[in-house]
Prior knowledge:
With 460 residues, this protein is an alpha/beta fold. The chain has helices spanning 133-136, 157-167, 191-204, 221-241, 253-266, 280-288, 317-325, 334-339, 368-392, 399-416, 426-437, 450-456, and strands at 4-5, 8-12, 15-18, 28-33, 39-48, 51-56, 69-76, 78-81, 89-91, 107-110, 121-122, 127-129, 141-142, 149-152, 169-170, 180-189, 210-216, 245-251, 292-294, 300-309, 328-332, 345-352. The protein contains 12 helices and 22 strands. Strands 9, 11, 14, 16, 17, 18, 19, 20, 21 and 22 form a 10-stranded mixed sheet that branches. The protein has a 7-stranded antiparallel sheet with strand order 1-7-4-5-6-3-2, with no helix packed on it. Strands 13-12-15 form a 3-stranded antiparallel sheet, with no helix packed on it.
Amino acid sequence: MIREYRTIEEIAGPLMLVRKVDGVKYDELGEIELENGEVRRCRVLEVNGSNVLVQLFEASAGLNLARSKVRFSGHGVELPVSDDMLGRVFSGMGKPIDGGPKLIPTASLDINGTPINPAARDYPNEFIQTGVSTIDGLNTLVRGQKLPIFSGSGLPHANLAAQIARQATVRSEGEEKTEFAVVFAAVGITFEEADFFISDFKRTGAIDRTVLFINLASDPAIERISTPRMALTAAEYLAFEKNMHVLVIITDITNYAEALREVSAARKEVPGRRGYPGYLYTDLATMYERAGRKMGSTGSITMIPILTMPEDDKTHPIPDLTGYITEGQIILSREMYRKGYMPPVDVLPSLSRLKDKGIGKGRTREDHAGTMNQIIACYARGRDAKELMVVLGEAALTPLDRLYAAFADEFEKRYINQGFYENRSVEETLDLGWELLRLLPRSEMKRINRDILDKYWPED
């Protein structure tokens, strides 16, 4: 039997104190019934004896303390899940907003899932093709990995996120395309961005294999905190119950962290770095560590969290803590963006710590590792030559340094700059890499095995 309480003591912003409550647990979902019959949702943040602190999902305007009733559901926030989730668009709280029929769930799962037990984890080692050369060729994504994208304010990370969602696929023999699904969570975005994602996915047909969660900037902060966990719960169902390979893309983690800071400030908690709560690292880890592969399960969750670095600062708490938890990062460059190269990936500071595990013969191609190392080395030397050219002039460079500078220019124009709607296979990416390397003398190919070099670049 559900009890109703008329003991609301105080409201401060999004927080409400209810006294003389019995049997209520942390994170439990509740409802507030106003005098006019309107129902608003809330969630338990703190339990102190018979006193309960709850956070409102909606605004507190018009809420009469003496005449409003509170009742608790006995369970936390849950997501109804079903096979029919694919191709649907949901709000940040899991309600369909695409005008389609109501979902008939097979189960309702608590969104606060648990991280995968380290002892039960299987090592990520299968290549995922995103169709983006700077990722597939140089910072390879593997199944079960957590590879964040660090962006800056105004950079087109939304376009890159949509491109990866459209193009990504697992290249394993004997597996059908229907076994790959995308769960896309947009956190704290504008109406224009939401319209872009929905229309782009529908126009390209990517919506058929995608579960889309949309949380707008105008929605409450508490919903923003729940949206990524909604997406991960849907991904866990598809991966470990339906044996699918699931790619989870969450944009923007910075909006999530700002909502977490807002709730922490309302609770008058002691702030940590830059006002963020001291448990930000733990909170992010509870999300990121839900991705991976499990022993004995054919399904997996691969995660690409996207965050904007305030003031392009990589030492900001959000990218800093994210880097500790995840396996590398893809960094977007404002310099590449000014040049008009899309997607504007900054190759040199970007890193995928598991890239060596998903490439090579039987996964991509035998020449992948050698060409990857050679291209990065040549591009780094070319960048150095261009910087030297700015200071001393082109005449001060050796003929070989001029070749490296020309290589760096061509690499940016043709390899990095592919646009948001070109889907390159990994073979096309590797062939393009060989084509660019031929701008340099064969004797400079010092990071490629001699047998591989003879096969792909035979001597005259």
